[in-house]
């Protein structure tokens, strides 16, 4: 009996783990810190082996949420979080520049900084970790990813403007004492992961996560004198604990430490000896980037049931991050230190089946120490120094009321009032509605306000991979302010091999009233940073998702997104936001043989064009033809394929990325020297105008080993 | 007993008796089904059972129902048995009874 109770408690706590829920002694689960609690769909149907739902729309969630499951995370190499989104049209992943390897996502057509990243419902990847944060999360550490579009819950703050992406890691309660993964790519990148979940009796469990990745060498396949990808080495370690008491009290705590080093640009760059003046012999003093980041994170979550049936509970969450970033780009150095603290205290009460509310206090404190020294070649060497110690914080009260009218209708009203450093009080309302008139139809709508302090240089790390002068408010921290509203309708068809055949349509609009805009077009060889201050800045997004399992174990999903992103610029009026792709279509096919012993994945995407910067209009290829005839980039396809062979406890996979080999031409822009290569010491140098793949075909192979806990 | 001789083409190495055996139809698999009641509690249990029982010798089909707490297995009786499958589930830490 005791054994059964141990298994039960572990299972319940695992099930709860996704949202730091508090489970009562009767197993009743109450979400205290989640985005919104999902309906327990999993309890409604048998699980047929053979179903490998990778990306799917959650049927039960009140807010439109795309889930990338464990199966979805295994569809591709997914060495890092960035690669996990390749199957998704909602999220577009690109490079910030052609030098640093920094990846950036776009959700609803806007930069990833407007999407709140959550690590098991704690804000993550903020400040200096935002440029490289997507590469700081090993894909093999993750259990699932939830992408929620629009104005989400107010509980974790209102920094989410376009949505939230929540990362669920492997759990302490997983009955997997050992997981190992090794993968190697044709560009010599190697990736090693280890995870160990251990249970020490009924109350204590822990998971240890380790990661090492790097590349042996780098290449310059396009012959532009710059490495296609930086030389890189990353160490990443995390340890997470769960204490689950008989009384129902849960305590979760953990830490994480990482170090990431990357050297990009021209091979042989040394920031200590680099001079902005042209060397006597070309190529003897290479330009490059050299970035070292260190991060330490610690957190604690405590959930205490107030009532025995857990209808009332109290939860406390605290999270601290220290980030140190030393970055050098040619003769520029950008050194930063960040201390961030997030804290939340909340009380939740399930009054009855129809009414529930959560109230709490919480806030964020960020201390940024930035030192910028930028030397450029204008009429001669020109040095500008900027040092700043900035404390940005907000603290406030919030409340969220949920009303359920049976299974048909749910409304959530969230209100938050925060005091922002130097800005005064801001009121942020958010509302979410879900209506399901019949079982086959789900209609959702939401709207709300988002607020965040801009960190102009870190938010736009690509600006350092240029020879351009910075102008305007690049060291100030505007409180960006936006409203997002939209909705979604999903129709579930009665055909297909599973009950998950659906067609879904979304529309979302984000409108800024204040936004730090980074303008590459305002002046020659300069990048302007300024607040749009009332000028129009908005994006409209339309998306169609279709998913079907026509025959058992064969799934087809098709997603198409169209984005209309506009911004009103001084002297130009309302224009299309540059370097923002206007559409993306993704087709994913997956076939698994009986009992999933072989799995075949194929993904094709068609990536729409974007308006290029004015200074790119005259760019020509080697034959002298204009590269951007209509001022737009070409539409291009990407293909991915993977085959997985599964044995008991062992998966072996081989795959390929960008199988069409499409690459952006002329990634490095600027005045060319006598050697025919772009001279990075000139003011026109720009390696940040990236809209397409930099690398061609990549082949990879890997193996995953899982040891399951036995009785 | 087939005899192979060096230098002989591979196709010639198959003896007449083997040839006849090859032409014979493979005997139909002795497929049986069994349903076990298992004290699983959550999705994690479903995953654990799925990931392990799928690869047990002789298993040809598997369906795990969380709401009914049952595991349905189709198996090749010439390669495994109810007892072995029950033992495999018990080895994962569950209490198992045939329904």
Residue share in β-strands of chain B: 25-35%
- Note the main sheet of chain B: 4 strands, antiparallel
Which CATH class of chain B applies here? Answer: Alpha Beta
How many helices of chain A?
A: 3
Query: Architecture of chain B in CATH?
Result: 2-Layer Sandwich
Please give the alpha-carbon distance between the first and last residues of chain A.
14 Å
- Rg from Cα of chain A: 25 Å
CATH architecture heading of chain A: Beta Barrel
Q: Output the helix-strand order of chain B.
A: HEHEEHE
Number of strands of chain A: 38
Q: What oligomerization state is this entry in?
A: heterodimer
Decide which structural class fits the backbone of chain A: mainly beta
Query: Gap between N and C termini of chain B, in Å?
Result: 47 Å
How many distinct domains of chain B?
Answer: 1
The parts of chain B where pLDDT drops under 50 for at least 5 residues are: 1-17
Query: Which class of secondary structure composition applies to the elements of chain B?
Result: alpha+beta
Instruction: Give the overall shape of chain B.
Output: elongated
CATH fold type of chain A: Maltoporin, Chain A
Q: What gyration radius of chain B follows from the Cα positions, in whole Å?
A: 21 Å
State the total count of DSSP E strands of chain B: 4
Count of discrete structural domains of chain A: 1
